Amino acid sequence: MNYKDIITNLKNKKFENVYLFYGREYYLIENTIKVFKDSLNEGMIDFNLDIIDGKETALDQLISSIETLPFMDDRKIVVVKDFELLKGKKKNFSDSDEKSLIEHLDNIPESTILVFIVYGDVDKRKSLVKKIDKKGIVFNCDKLSDMDLFKWTKKKFETNDAIIENTQIMYFIDQEGYRDKSSEKTLSDLENEINKISSFVGKQNKVTNEIIDKLSQKKVENDIFKLIDYIGEQNASNAMRILNDMMHEGESVLGIFAMIARQFKVVMQVRQLQVQGHTSKTIAEKLKIHPFVAGKALKQSNNFSDNIIVEILNYILESDYKIKNGLVRDTLALEILVSKYCQRKIS
Question: Which of 96, 101, 224, 241 suits 9 as a labelling partner, its CA being 20 to 30 A distant?
């Protein structure tokens, strides 16, 4: 059964007794939880929806929640997130606890729907995983197939009231690289890009390849590389020009801060690995980043000491707090970053 069929069944209130959804595509997992919630009587949801932290719960608490009958609704939904027995860990549970829970799955009340959620991989060798698969549904929320991705992307642009042809949808998907084997992009990342492009063109306006190129994440990443290069070269005017262009094209200040911080963390990691004798190629493999990114980080490491990078990261962290609490204007915080670190020796 594919993801679409599962969601269709849930919306039609055709439920299994127990489910396990796992994987790296958190967007699909969160959407599944939402569909389960929407199936309940909204006025009684506080009584009939239990969301349990699987890392903290005890067996008796979990069983008590499962056995509690729904209140003024046909069903009760119990969502257990990151349950350790599904990941091959036994910090809080004994072998007898695991056996007891497995046996209990045969006696779940018909009015209870038990949903296990794991953000990441599960240990498929575990008896609990095998039992859930036998009794209900186990589904890996992995990347969408090419066709499903196309349909999903088209629908998102349409929801934003942006006009886009099929050719441009394919171009957008190709540019984002979501289906690349080494890509860590998620549907949430793609949705952010779709929202940014839709906002830029405005309602009932057409999305072109030129606009996709102008706002693509690849361009943003290249702009971040350039920005850090200019800061390293103490070229304040060009650094400010890059910043202004990025903000004009719709990038948020907090987003820019996050990308700067991420790149500086990569710079520190590649320098460490280089000292250990690794080549640019093996560094890219170890960090699971593109060789081009590894190469750029190695060059940038020549312009920044570890102490300065830590100082910049601390500044970004403090600025994030101040911006969110209204203590400083976001654009001013960015301008101060550029000004401060372009006026001092950074090597």
Answer: 101
Question: Which H helix or E strand runs over 166?
Answer: helix 166-176
Q: Given 1.10.443.10, 3.30.420.100, 1.20.1250.20, 1.20.272.10, which CATH number is that of 218-342?
A: 1.20.272.10
Query: So where are the chain's domains?
Result: 3-140, 146-215, 218-342
Continuous segment of H or E residues that includes residue 79: strand 76-81
Strand order in the sheet with 76-81: 49-53, 76-81, 112-119, 18-23, 137-140
Report the C-alpha gap between 179 and 326 in whole angstroms: 39
Rounded CA-CA distance 334/316 in Å is 9
Task: Give the DSSP per-residue string, 266-333.
Answer: HHHHHHHHHHTT--HHHHHHHHT--HHHHHHHHHHGGG--HHHHHHHHHHHHHHHHHHHTTSS-HHHH
Mean pLDDT, consecutive 10-residue stretches, the chain (347 aa), reads 92 95 92 96 94 90 94 95 83 84 92 95 91 95 90 95 96 83 78 91 93 79 87 91 84 89 92 90 83 85 91 94 92 92 64
**pTM recorded for the entire structure:** 0.64
Q: How far apart are CA 275 and CA 272, in angstroms?
A: 5
